[in-house]
Amino acid sequence: MKKAFIVLLMGVTIISCSKDDDDDSSSGSSLTNTQKISRTWKATSMTGEVMYNNQSYYSEDLFVYFDDCDKDDLIIVASDGTYQETEGATKCDPNDPDVIGSGTWAFINNDSKIVLSDGLFSDTMDLVSLSATTMVVSQEDYWDGDSTYVFTATYSAQ
Questions:
Q1: End-to-end CA distance of the chain, in Å?
Q2: 106-145: pLDDT as tens digits
Q3: What's the CATH number for 2-157?
């Protein structure tokens, strides 16, 4: 799952971004984006879409190709600007460490993008939507002047 998450963090630009302005139902106060993102997330879907001349040409569910042991991995985003990716309830290899990735994160461009860095690589992805329960991120990978591949992932708060 780390590879899939990192793939979404590389080379990002999407045409439209929106952020949900959800209220914290427990207190009724509006949450900041840092408060919304600072929680444990699990991927629930991932799609890839080929765009040609800014029109959708082909879309595919990429999540079906992930092993169950990768689908349950968790991403813990902390308000101090750090994150960790951990193995979920099942490990693909019982000898794998519990923490399989870590680094720092930050919002940029008026909270419309997220930058993650693991110390070696720094990747940016578009924040398509963010609430206290759901996060959708996307990025484009340019193939040539007319074609792009758009990765979109949805995460649910745990």
A1: 16
A2: 999 999 999 999 999 999 999 999 999 999 999 998 877 7
A3: 2.40.128
